[in-house]
Backbone:
DNA sequence: ATTTTTATTCCGCTATAACGGAACATATGC
DNA sequence: GCATATGTTCCGTTATAGCGGAATAAAAAT
């Protein structure tokens, strides 16, 4: 076989998306036979694929002749795409504002499974070595955000979620679970949490929640500042973060 | 094999949508390995599928670790879904209004390949036998809408689109192509066309364009009225249709 | 640095999805 | 009405997609 591999059969998945794209192009519902013709694809295959696409809700039958158009599910997927990138774009703007007004490093953080990750970061005017890089996965209990992001879970759910070793601090000390839970509850009530960093000795971390439409804290905005800056500007930084978090929140 | 067929392999298409749905659920980008674990699906398969989904633009790589989230294309598909059903819903409302104010039968019509079809219909107070039922495919030149819907095409494109036999009227007479083109150009300029029905002897058909965002007449609103009603209310019907068409049009 | 774990790529086997074509159903023309 | 064309379903064959498992690479732990 040569570089130009000759394939006699197309993958179902490729043809499936061809069907979806085609319907998008023509902007109308069409019958299976029409679609098959338009794509130059084998009829029996197209019938089969349309069947499974309908089962998946990616297509909907629109009339008694069996015409199909794009289905509800593609719409919901589209919404998810938009929400994700809207949030990312808006969050990036917020970080710009926060860092512009405070000169401190700001971050947009989320959970990634049972770990904490920095999704976006804007470095302050005096960038120092931040504990975690963007995309790095960190133990949730080591972070200020890790108090806010679990606020909607029960004690047991929190215990189940976090691996036991994540309660052991970088310096080897064991965290107290009950004290951690108490901090989570307090952070949830106050819509804010801050503490001297656990992973280094010279920074203070501020975190404010971003809520999704169901009121769950789905992300946080953070400021990482040298301890003395943090002390001097505590109220300012807290207010800046909270109002930015409110702006990104979807709650009505 | 029994009723409960045991399958050892899943279809790629099914797993592909599982991946999309999963990302919608978690609302974050994830790495292939995570997704495979979350779905309990074979790793090698998930890697392969994610590759093709990325090729299709259904997924996008969001960071240097290879994390993926829903891609641009799902968004565009979602938009197409929304536009289609928005237009359908709004058009149905318009037909209600038109028929309420005129008592005549109103229709929402589109092209379906190289044929004309009635997509929606609201029957007037004295329903008579309409030439074409909803969903029926009719020769484009036989219809009033068939003047408006081709307004964006060149003479040659029109000639290529319409099968020769569609220029033969139901009574066997041959239509003159140049005269037909002239009517199309005039209808396009006037944003309106009406004539005594070709397919029956007692109705007059009115048609006004609905434009999509690129200014192409993608649909029409029509009134099918008995000839004498049509004569008496010509200006009223024309105005009602045109303003309704303007409301549905996407042009800025 | 070295080991251990986890993530990714590679590759060969085989269950089966895609396909062609026949059979059947439905619409269209005569 | 019958004939012709077109749309849909059914079914057997076979190219190959999905899979398991090995090999390799990258991270994490020691």
Residues:
């Amino acid at each position: 076989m040569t570089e130009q591999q000759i394939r006699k059969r197309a993958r179902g998945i490729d043809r499936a998306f061809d069907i979806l794209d085609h319907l998008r192009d023509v902007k109308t519902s069409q019958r299976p036979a029409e679609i098959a013709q338009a794509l130059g694809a084998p009829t029996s295959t197209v019938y089969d694929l349309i069947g499974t696409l309908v089962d998946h809700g990616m297509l909907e039958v629109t009339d008694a002749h069996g015409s199909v158009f794009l289905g509800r599910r593609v719409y919901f997927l589209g919404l998810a795409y938009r929400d994700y990138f809207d949030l990312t774009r808006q969050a990036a703007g917020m970080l710009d504002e926060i860092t512009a007004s405070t000169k401190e490093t700001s971050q947009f953080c989320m959970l990634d499974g049972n770990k904490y990750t920095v999704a976006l970061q804007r470095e302050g005017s005096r960038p120092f070595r931040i504990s975690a890089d963007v995309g790095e996965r960190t133990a949730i209990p080591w972070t200020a955000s890790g108090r806010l992001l679990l606020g909607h879970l029960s004690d047991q759910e929190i215990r189940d979620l976090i691996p036991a070793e994540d309660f052991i601090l970088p310096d080897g000390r064991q965290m107290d679970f009950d004290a951690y839970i108490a901090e989570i509850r307090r952070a949830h009530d106050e819509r804010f949490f801050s503490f001297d960093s656990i992973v280094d000795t010279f920074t203070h971390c501020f975190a404010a929640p971003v809520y999704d439409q169901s009121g769950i804290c789905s992300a946080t905005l953070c400021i990482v500042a040298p301890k003395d800056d943090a002390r001097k500007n505590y109220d300012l930084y807290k207010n800046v973060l909270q109002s930015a978090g409110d702006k990104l929140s979807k709650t009505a």
